[in-house]
Amino acid sequence: MATFKAIRIDKADKGTTAALTQFDEAELMDGDVTVDVEWSTLNYKDGLALTGKAPVVRRFPMIAGIDFAGTVERSSHPNWKAGDKVVSTGWGLGETHLGAYAEKARVKGDWLVRLPEGMSAREAMAIGTAGFTAMLAVLALEKQGVTPGSGPVVVTGASGGVGSVATAVLAKLGYHVIASTGRMAEAPYLKSLGAAEVIDRNELSGPAKPLAKERWAGGVDSVGSTTLANLLSMTRYGGAIAACGLAAGMDLPTSVAPFILRGVCLLGIDSVMCPLAPRKAAWERLARDLDRSKLSEITHEIGLDQVLDNGPKILAGQVRGRIVVKIV
Questions:
Q1: pLDDT tens digit sequence for 68-95
Q2: Is the peptide bond before 61 cis (omega within 30 degrees of 0)?
Protein backbone atom coordinates (compact mmCIF):
# COMPACT_ATOMS: atom_id res chain seq x y z
CA MET A 1 0.00 0.00 0.00
CA ALA A 2 1.14 3.55 -0.74
CA THR A 3 1.68 6.34 1.74
CA PHE A 4 0.46 9.91 1.36
CA LYS A 5 0.87 13.28 3.08
CA ALA A 6 -1.49 14.00 5.95
CA ILE A 7 -1.77 16.08 9.10
CA ARG A 8 -1.90 13.51 11.89
CA ILE A 9 -3.07 14.19 15.44
CA ASP A 10 -1.90 11.86 18.20
CA LYS A 11 -2.62 11.61 21.89
CA ALA A 12 0.24 12.86 24.09
CA ASP A 13 1.01 12.73 27.80
CA LYS A 14 -0.38 16.24 28.03
CA GLY A 15 -2.99 16.97 25.40
CA THR A 16 -2.32 16.16 21.75
CA THR A 17 0.32 16.60 19.07
CA ALA A 18 -0.21 17.46 15.41
CA ALA A 19 2.29 17.04 12.58
CA LEU A 20 2.45 16.85 8.80
CA THR A 21 3.67 13.34 8.06
CA GLN A 22 3.30 10.29 5.82
CA PHE A 23 0.20 8.16 6.42
CA ASP A 24 -0.19 4.56 5.31
CA GLU A 25 -3.21 3.97 3.08
CA ALA A 26 -3.73 0.64 4.86
CA GLU A 27 -4.64 2.62 7.99
CA LEU A 28 -7.58 4.40 6.37
CA MET A 29 -10.93 3.63 8.00
CA ASP A 30 -13.78 1.68 6.43
CA GLY A 31 -15.77 3.30 3.64
CA ASP A 32 -17.07 2.42 0.19
CA VAL A 33 -15.57 5.42 -1.63
CA THR A 34 -11.92 6.50 -1.80
CA VAL A 35 -11.36 10.11 -2.86
CA ASP A 36 -8.28 11.90 -4.12
CA VAL A 37 -8.56 15.07 -2.04
CA GLU A 38 -7.73 18.29 -3.89
CA TRP A 39 -8.94 21.10 -1.61
CA SER A 40 -9.96 21.53 2.00
CA THR A 41 -10.49 24.50 4.31
CA LEU A 42 -9.53 25.80 7.73
CA ASN A 43 -12.54 26.18 10.02
CA TYR A 44 -12.85 27.23 13.66
CA LYS A 45 -13.39 23.59 14.64
CA ASP A 46 -10.21 22.64 12.77
CA GLY A 47 -8.32 25.23 14.80
CA LEU A 48 -9.61 23.64 18.01
CA ALA A 49 -8.59 20.17 16.84
CA LEU A 50 -5.12 21.19 15.64
CA THR A 51 -4.26 23.07 18.83
CA GLY A 52 -6.00 20.72 21.27
CA LYS A 53 -7.85 23.70 22.78
CA ALA A 54 -11.05 21.63 22.96
CA PRO A 55 -11.75 17.88 22.83
CA VAL A 56 -12.84 17.87 19.19
CA VAL A 57 -10.88 14.74 18.28
CA ARG A 58 -12.51 11.57 19.63
CA ARG A 59 -10.17 8.86 18.32
CA PHE A 60 -6.42 8.58 17.74
CA PRO A 61 -4.57 8.72 15.51
CA MET A 62 -6.71 11.22 13.62
CA ILE A 63 -6.27 13.00 10.30
CA ALA A 64 -7.56 16.52 10.87
CA GLY A 65 -9.86 18.45 8.53
CA ILE A 66 -13.67 18.53 8.53
CA ASP A 67 -14.40 19.07 4.83
CA PHE A 68 -12.97 18.38 1.38
CA ALA A 69 -13.56 18.48 -2.35
CA GLY A 70 -11.93 16.06 -4.76
CA THR A 71 -12.28 13.28 -7.30
CA VAL A 72 -13.45 9.73 -6.68
CA GLU A 73 -10.55 7.30 -7.15
CA ARG A 74 -12.58 4.12 -6.65
CA SER A 75 -16.03 3.23 -5.37
CA SER A 76 -18.25 0.28 -4.50
CA HIS A 77 -21.17 2.62 -3.75
CA PRO A 78 -23.93 2.59 -6.41
CA ASN A 79 -24.11 6.39 -6.64
CA TRP A 80 -20.43 7.02 -7.32
CA LYS A 81 -17.81 5.99 -9.85
CA ALA A 82 -14.18 6.83 -10.50
CA GLY A 83 -13.82 10.36 -11.84
CA ASP A 84 -16.87 11.84 -10.11
CA LYS A 85 -16.31 15.26 -8.53
CA VAL A 86 -17.55 15.31 -4.94
CA VAL A 87 -17.81 17.42 -1.78
CA SER A 88 -18.03 16.23 1.82
CA THR A 89 -18.62 18.23 4.99
CA GLY A 90 -19.29 17.08 8.55
CA TRP A 91 -20.24 13.47 9.40
CA GLY A 92 -17.45 13.38 11.99
CA LEU A 93 -14.60 14.00 9.55
CA GLY A 94 -11.58 15.07 11.56
CA GLU A 95 -13.37 14.12 14.79
CA THR A 96 -14.36 10.45 14.75
CA HIS A 97 -13.46 9.60 11.14
CA LEU A 98 -10.13 10.25 9.43
CA GLY A 99 -10.45 13.64 7.81
CA ALA A 100 -9.55 15.98 4.99
CA TYR A 101 -6.00 17.24 5.54
CA ALA A 102 -4.61 14.38 3.46
CA GLU A 103 -4.08 13.42 -0.14
CA LYS A 104 -6.62 10.60 0.24
CA ALA A 105 -9.86 10.07 2.16
CA ARG A 106 -12.04 6.97 2.48
CA VAL A 107 -15.65 7.66 3.45
CA LYS A 108 -19.18 6.37 3.11
CA GLY A 109 -20.74 7.24 -0.22
CA ASP A 110 -23.80 8.58 1.60
CA TRP A 111 -21.58 11.32 3.03
CA LEU A 112 -20.85 12.78 -0.40
CA VAL A 113 -22.62 15.43 -2.46
CA ARG A 114 -21.95 15.92 -6.14
CA LEU A 115 -19.98 19.05 -6.94
CA PRO A 116 -22.52 21.49 -8.42
CA GLU A 117 -22.26 21.95 -12.17
CA GLY A 118 -20.05 24.88 -13.08
CA MET A 119 -18.46 25.06 -9.62
CA SER A 120 -14.79 24.17 -9.20
CA ALA A 121 -13.45 22.13 -6.30
CA ARG A 122 -11.59 25.22 -5.08
CA GLU A 123 -14.77 27.30 -5.16
CA ALA A 124 -16.61 24.57 -3.25
CA MET A 125 -14.03 24.76 -0.49
CA ALA A 126 -13.95 28.55 -0.56
CA ILE A 127 -17.57 28.00 0.52
CA GLY A 128 -16.85 24.88 2.61
CA THR A 129 -18.46 23.96 5.90
CA ALA A 130 -18.78 27.62 6.88
CA GLY A 131 -20.63 28.60 3.72
CA PHE A 132 -22.75 25.45 3.79
CA THR A 133 -23.71 26.26 7.39
CA ALA A 134 -24.53 29.84 6.41
CA MET A 135 -26.84 28.62 3.65
CA LEU A 136 -28.60 26.21 6.02
CA ALA A 137 -29.23 29.23 8.26
CA VAL A 138 -30.64 31.24 5.34
CA LEU A 139 -32.90 28.34 4.35
CA ALA A 140 -34.15 28.11 7.95
CA LEU A 141 -34.98 31.83 8.03
CA GLU A 142 -36.84 31.53 4.73
CA LYS A 143 -38.79 28.52 5.99
CA GLN A 144 -39.74 30.55 9.07
CA GLY A 145 -41.11 33.29 6.81
CA VAL A 146 -38.36 35.89 7.20
CA THR A 147 -38.21 37.63 3.81
CA PRO A 148 -36.45 40.78 2.56
CA GLY A 149 -39.74 42.57 3.12
CA SER A 150 -39.85 41.55 6.78
CA GLY A 151 -37.14 44.03 7.73
CA PRO A 152 -33.38 44.11 8.37
CA VAL A 153 -31.43 40.99 9.25
CA VAL A 154 -28.32 40.88 11.42
CA VAL A 155 -25.23 38.72 10.93
CA THR A 156 -22.82 38.31 13.84
CA GLY A 157 -19.17 37.35 13.50
CA ALA A 158 -19.61 38.85 10.06
CA SER A 159 -15.90 38.97 9.20
CA GLY A 160 -15.52 35.23 9.76
CA GLY A 161 -16.27 32.37 7.42
CA VAL A 162 -19.93 31.79 8.23
CA GLY A 163 -20.60 35.49 8.57
CA SER A 164 -18.93 36.46 5.30
CA VAL A 165 -20.93 33.95 3.26
CA ALA A 166 -24.16 34.72 5.10
CA THR A 167 -23.68 38.43 4.45
CA ALA A 168 -22.99 37.89 0.75
CA VAL A 169 -25.91 35.48 0.22
CA LEU A 170 -28.47 37.52 2.18
CA ALA A 171 -27.44 40.72 0.40
CA LYS A 172 -27.78 39.09 -3.03
CA LEU A 173 -31.24 37.84 -2.06
CA GLY A 174 -32.27 41.44 -1.34
CA TYR A 175 -32.09 41.59 2.45
CA HIS A 176 -30.95 44.71 4.30
CA VAL A 177 -27.97 43.21 6.12
CA ILE A 178 -26.59 44.61 9.37
CA ALA A 179 -23.13 43.10 9.85
CA SER A 180 -21.74 42.88 13.39
CA THR A 181 -17.97 42.57 13.82
CA GLY A 182 -15.29 43.03 16.43
CA ARG A 183 -13.00 44.44 13.76
CA MET A 184 -14.51 47.69 12.51
CA ALA A 185 -11.53 48.10 10.17
CA GLU A 186 -13.24 45.35 8.15
CA ALA A 187 -16.26 47.58 7.43
CA PRO A 188 -15.19 48.26 3.81
CA TYR A 189 -14.76 44.51 3.26
CA LEU A 190 -18.21 43.76 4.69
CA LYS A 191 -19.83 46.49 2.61
CA SER A 192 -18.14 45.04 -0.47
CA LEU A 193 -19.98 41.79 0.32
CA GLY A 194 -23.27 43.67 0.41
CA ALA A 195 -23.73 44.72 4.04
CA ALA A 196 -25.91 47.84 4.27
CA GLU A 197 -24.73 48.66 7.80
CA VAL A 198 -21.78 47.60 9.96
CA ILE A 199 -22.00 47.73 13.75
CA ASP A 200 -19.45 47.06 16.48
CA ARG A 201 -19.97 43.78 18.32
CA ASN A 202 -19.73 45.72 21.58
CA GLU A 203 -23.32 46.83 20.93
CA LEU A 204 -24.31 43.19 21.52
CA SER A 205 -21.82 42.11 24.16
CA GLY A 206 -23.26 43.62 27.36
CA PRO A 207 -25.75 41.88 29.65
CA ALA A 208 -28.97 41.26 27.73
CA LYS A 209 -32.27 42.78 28.79
CA PRO A 210 -35.29 40.45 28.71
CA LEU A 211 -36.64 42.68 25.94
CA ALA A 212 -34.88 45.55 24.17
CA LYS A 213 -35.81 47.86 21.33
CA GLU A 214 -36.82 45.90 18.23
CA ARG A 215 -34.09 46.21 15.60
CA TRP A 216 -34.27 43.30 13.13
CA ALA A 217 -36.62 40.70 11.72
CA GLY A 218 -34.07 37.92 11.74
CA GLY A 219 -30.44 37.03 11.96
CA VAL A 220 -27.63 34.52 11.62
CA ASP A 221 -25.52 34.07 14.74
CA SER A 222 -22.20 32.22 14.94
CA VAL A 223 -21.16 33.71 18.30
CA GLY A 224 -23.60 32.45 20.93
CA SER A 225 -23.61 33.40 24.62
CA THR A 226 -24.46 37.02 25.49
CA THR A 227 -24.42 38.07 21.84
CA LEU A 228 -27.20 35.62 20.99
CA ALA A 229 -29.14 36.70 24.07
CA ASN A 230 -28.98 40.31 22.90
CA LEU A 231 -30.01 39.37 19.36
CA LEU A 232 -33.10 37.60 20.68
CA SER A 233 -34.06 40.53 22.91
CA MET A 234 -33.84 42.91 19.91
CA THR A 235 -35.71 40.75 17.38
CA ARG A 236 -38.99 42.08 16.06
CA TYR A 237 -42.33 40.45 16.77
CA GLY A 238 -42.57 37.12 14.94
CA GLY A 239 -38.93 37.19 13.87
CA ALA A 240 -36.30 34.48 14.08
CA ILE A 241 -32.60 33.99 14.76
CA ALA A 242 -30.68 31.05 13.26
CA ALA A 243 -27.95 29.96 15.69
CA CYS A 244 -25.00 27.99 14.31
CA GLY A 245 -21.93 28.78 16.43
CA LEU A 246 -20.43 29.26 19.86
CA ALA A 247 -17.32 31.40 19.38
CA ALA A 248 -18.14 33.31 22.59
CA GLY A 249 -19.36 30.30 24.58
CA MET A 250 -22.08 27.67 24.91
CA ASP A 251 -24.12 29.51 27.54
CA LEU A 252 -27.27 31.47 26.70
CA PRO A 253 -28.05 34.07 29.40
CA THR A 254 -31.53 35.02 28.24
CA SER A 255 -35.15 34.73 29.41
CA VAL A 256 -38.34 33.38 27.90
CA ALA A 257 -39.55 36.95 27.23
CA PRO A 258 -38.64 37.14 23.49
CA PHE A 259 -40.34 33.81 22.88
CA ILE A 260 -43.60 34.30 24.77
CA LEU A 261 -44.07 38.07 24.40
CA ARG A 262 -42.84 38.62 20.84
CA GLY A 263 -43.21 35.16 19.34
CA VAL A 264 -39.53 35.08 18.42
CA CYS A 265 -38.13 31.75 17.21
CA LEU A 266 -34.63 30.41 17.86
CA LEU A 267 -33.64 28.14 14.97
CA GLY A 268 -30.89 25.61 15.64
CA ILE A 269 -28.54 24.89 12.72
CA ASP A 270 -26.51 21.67 12.65
CA SER A 271 -24.26 21.12 9.66
CA VAL A 272 -22.50 17.96 10.87
CA MET A 273 -25.26 15.35 10.79
CA CYS A 274 -27.59 17.25 8.45
CA PRO A 275 -29.52 14.74 6.25
CA LEU A 276 -28.69 14.36 2.58
CA ALA A 277 -31.76 16.11 1.12
CA PRO A 278 -31.17 19.48 2.80
CA ARG A 279 -27.45 19.13 2.02
CA LYS A 280 -28.21 18.86 -1.68
CA ALA A 281 -30.67 21.74 -1.47
CA ALA A 282 -28.11 23.96 0.29
CA TRP A 283 -25.40 23.27 -2.31
CA GLU A 284 -27.86 23.90 -5.14
CA ARG A 285 -28.79 27.22 -3.58
CA LEU A 286 -25.14 28.13 -3.00
CA ALA A 287 -24.43 27.50 -6.69
CA ARG A 288 -27.31 29.83 -7.59
CA ASP A 289 -27.49 32.45 -4.83
CA LEU A 290 -23.87 33.12 -3.90
CA ASP A 291 -22.11 35.59 -6.16
CA ARG A 292 -18.95 33.56 -6.67
CA SER A 293 -17.09 36.64 -7.87
CA LYS A 294 -17.16 37.60 -4.16
CA LEU A 295 -15.18 34.48 -3.25
CA SER A 296 -11.91 36.13 -4.21
CA GLU A 297 -12.60 38.84 -1.60
CA ILE A 298 -13.57 36.25 1.01
CA THR A 299 -10.80 33.71 0.37
CA HIS A 300 -7.13 33.31 1.27
CA GLU A 301 -5.21 30.26 0.02
CA ILE A 302 -2.58 28.24 1.87
CA GLY A 303 -0.81 24.93 1.34
CA LEU A 304 -1.11 21.82 3.48
CA ASP A 305 2.26 22.67 5.04
CA GLN A 306 0.86 26.00 6.34
CA VAL A 307 -2.20 24.62 8.11
CA LEU A 308 -0.56 24.07 11.49
CA ASP A 309 0.69 27.67 11.65
CA ASN A 310 -2.76 29.04 10.84
CA GLY A 311 -4.75 26.98 13.36
CA PRO A 312 -4.03 29.35 16.30
CA LYS A 313 -4.78 32.39 14.13
CA ILE A 314 -8.37 31.36 13.39
CA LEU A 315 -8.99 30.81 17.11
CA ALA A 316 -7.59 34.27 17.86
CA GLY A 317 -10.00 35.91 15.41
CA GLN A 318 -7.15 36.95 13.12
CA VAL A 319 -8.62 35.39 9.98
CA ARG A 320 -10.87 37.27 7.60
CA GLY A 321 -13.35 35.21 5.62
CA ARG A 322 -12.31 31.78 4.42
CA ILE A 323 -8.99 29.94 4.23
CA VAL A 324 -8.81 27.32 1.48
CA VAL A 325 -6.17 24.61 1.73
CA LYS A 326 -4.56 23.30 -1.45
CA ILE A 327 -3.88 19.63 -0.76
CA VAL A 328 -2.10 18.69 -4.00
A1: 999 999 999 999 999 999 999 999 999 9
A2: yes
